[in-house]
Amino acid sequence: MEYYENSDCYHFSDYFALQNGYLFCENVDVKSIKAFMEESDFETKSPVFVYSKNQIISNIESYKETLKSINREACLNYAMKANMNPAVLELMRDRGCSVTLVSGFELRLALRLGFEPSRIVLNGNGKQGWEIELAVERGCLLNIDGWFNLQQTIAACRRLKKVARVLLRINPNIDAKVHKYNTTGTSGSKFGIEMFQMSHVVEALRHEPLVHVVGVHSHLGSTITDIDVFRKSAKAMMKEFSSLKASGFQHMKYINLGGGLGIDYTRHASRTMKASLKTTADFQKPIGERNATPRGIVDAIHQELAPEVSLILEPGRSLIGDAAVLLTRVLGVKHGAEKSYIVVDGSMTEVIRPALYGAYHHIELVEPTSQIISNGCPEQGVKNGVFENEHTENRVTNSHFEQQVQNDNTENRFQTVNSDNGVRYGHLEHGFQIADAQNVQNCQQFDNSPVNVQERRVYEVVGPVCESGDFLGHDRLLATPHEGCHLAVFDVGAYCTSMSSNYNMRPRPAELLVDGSKVRVIRQPDSFETMLQCFNC
What we know:
alpha/beta; 8-stranded parallel beta barrel; 25% helix; decarboxylase; DAP_deCOOHase_LysA; diaminopimelate decarboxylase activity; Diaminopimelate decarboxylase; Ala_racemase/Decarboxylase_C
């Protein structure tokens, strides 16, 4: 058995923090969001994605400020495939970002939302004819991915009698040192023009007046934490840029560098790991020490590029990944002979990354547990209401929790909440429990004040989907949650909602955006009827 010291305040980031055992997103207690969902008219109450608007803004500004400091023409491009919620896209647009797209519908959405067409990049190794024509018609940049894509683009330009501005996506055979499914820039990848093919492509372009080569592009993969691979990519692309310009391609202007800068998914992992595992190197070394920061990536690239080059930077998930949690409800707890399980209503249909890549997402209770072990429990590993094999559980008492239970009976309304410094933790206003801004500001990551100690055991955190691969976390050291308790799955802003599905006929959940003490729905959850709208039944 291990114990978890639940300090008065712990910061997961600038905008997600535990206060007295309760998780706050900005100034909003996520338990209040749970209460709102329960009383809403939505057919699907849980799980729910909760975003921090100010975390997204902070991520954007980190890059924008760094790019301003290098005295170079540069554009920050957001990869829409990471998360295509229009509310997220509007935040990117309003702060000067453009977008990199991989489908025609993404392009249509970008145009509808008012992104400047000349700064949009249409990428993809398998573009359809209509997608290319739309990009050419609207004056977007296109990445040429290979020989047949070049022929498609030439044909589209001739049909439209319009010039296309293109970048050549070159595969530089640089290992990004990430999961093989996330690697895009090595030999054998389906993406890009390999070096031995370049002369053939370049020769064809010399004789095509309707296709103007304006730059080169390289994308190495996703979840990258080794800054040196960005430097190598910039150096390789600078060489190709100079060669093309010297050989007569006078429209050369851009170097477009992609590869998602990884976020440190494991930065809080030691909180829910067994003590025997807490020396694991990946969980001990903060991402900042590897220079995998906006400053690190921009500096590495900038020093390799000539002054006249205009940089298009695509930093991937680092703009959105850490800005959301999945709030998921505990359905029950199972104790087997070999493993114990926390079964929640969230699953691989909302967060597929663990099942797809073996990826880690941090998981924590969003509230203190009130679990009581009842006598005569039929589960294996339990006898007379007591867990064997040193898994004894105690009831956790907490006056704040008892007060919160009473607050849950307060009528909840989904309204804008304006906080002031007179509002304290534990008070409910207009249906949302909100925090004193000064309390949040003064909250330190590790507080020396008295702590509550809860007994914990190792759990598999799994969903209800009919697949053995449906899990959200392995071997997590957590306090036993009560039925109806909620857990937060962290860092789900990127490649979660955009990769979600209706498998097992599960509805996609609601998405909520928190801005200080204000909360709004930015995606309604699926209902039974909306899921059937495209069928004739």
